[in-house]
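Run log, item B.
One chain of 498 residues. Sequence copied directly from the ordering sheet:
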Amino acid sequence: MAARTLMIQGTASHVGKSVLATALCRLYVRRGIQVAPFKAQNMSNNSFVTPDGKEIGRAQAVQAAACWLAPRSDFNPVLIKPESDHRAQLVVNGQVAGSLETHDFGRVAREYCGAVQQAFARLASEFDLVILEGAGSPAEINLRDQDIVNMRMAQAAKAPVLLVGDIDRGGVFAALVGTLTLLQPQERQHVKGFLINKLRGEAKLLTPGIRMIEAQTGVRCLGVLPHWINLQIPQEDSLGWDSWVQSHPYRPDSLTIGVADVPAISNFTDFEALSREPDVRLIRLDRMTTLRLDALIFPGTKNTSYALNFVKAKGLDQTARKVLAEGGTVIGLCGGYQMLGKGILDPLGVESSEPELEGMGLLDIVTRFAREKVTVRVTGLHRETGCPVDGYEVHMGQTSLSSKVAPLLMVKTAGESVERAEGAVSNDGRIMGTYVHGLFDVPLFRRMFLNRLRETRGWSPLEATTGSSLEQELDRLADFVQRYVDLAAVDAIIELGV
């Protein structure tokens, strides 16, 4: 018997589709139902590497965890990773399938709709319930013929749809009614309920508006959810900058850590654990600053060459030198690691038309781009302290170290027994780079790093704190949604289908 289905769509991007889909995954799996997440196409640079070395969107990896499943490429068969405003890398079934120009995005629907349907069919034959997530809005009528992720997917999966609107940005009633109005009649019949998300204030104040649009559209409101600021679930994309609200009181011994806001930033979640530490003030930098920084992080990016030119144009390379002169530390992650070196070689034009680009020259390393993409999970040790680490690599370059720098880590690729050197660190330990994403998610490594910064300031070290685990956060999220959503009505919608 094919799985039952439920789809979460939204009136716009960042209205809460991913979070609500995640909550529903956990709510239904806690009932003993075998649940799988599915998003046909995701556009995000915040990716995750599965145990078998495939690349999917981070949100689907979190949803897999909510379902008590290992992530797999079937959960997100098409991933588009923007490299610039006009170009993106295309990942299909977890592997690189080439590049796309903006004008050619319709090719995805033409060439990969079959791969999407096959991935969904595998899940539908294996699980009791598939919870699908849309992308952006189903009312992008100019792109209807290119759609493989919203209403076309709902129709193929015979999925009832819950439509989510975000009241925090205003205009939620117009967004809900406008979305329904722009849908075609056969699409509109899939929408069985709507949810209003991110309310600040009294829900009862919305009642007249809710009753009016229920009467006008014939679609019921199934819940009004309050805005939840301190949600410690990994964000899907760099809109997550908005979530860096300091939820702990200021303290005089707070460390100030800057994160360079480079173009096409990737794997934004690398810094979320730092932002939750009680002694860290994390700030976003898109230009030179006169602030004293204890550390400056250059993050990963989908276009290292473009990002490096941006860093130089905005004076962030000079900021890095200022940080070092004042006793601070500079870290490069993935593309940021490549930027710290002497140069980047791209003879095959993998990223740009520039065959050679001068780096910041902070580490004596050189990177050469290659067409083959590395996507692996790793475990290992911080070479100097023996602190355990784990994470994953997603990159298209190989970096060579001179004898003047040492490896930062010793790691093993998942499924292999051979240990290898990874990353680079300067002799004084204050400049470091690595391809491994997720290092700061490891509590002992994170606290070791922060305590070294504290030591430079003459401050006492703090104990490592694990905080709440992802499992605990997923249960908190599920409990929260259960309080505000009419789950009996959702159950009936799933049972009846379309």
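Observations after the first pass:
- The chain has two domains: 4-232+472-496, 238-457.
- The mean pLDDT is 91.
Flagged for discussion on Thursday.
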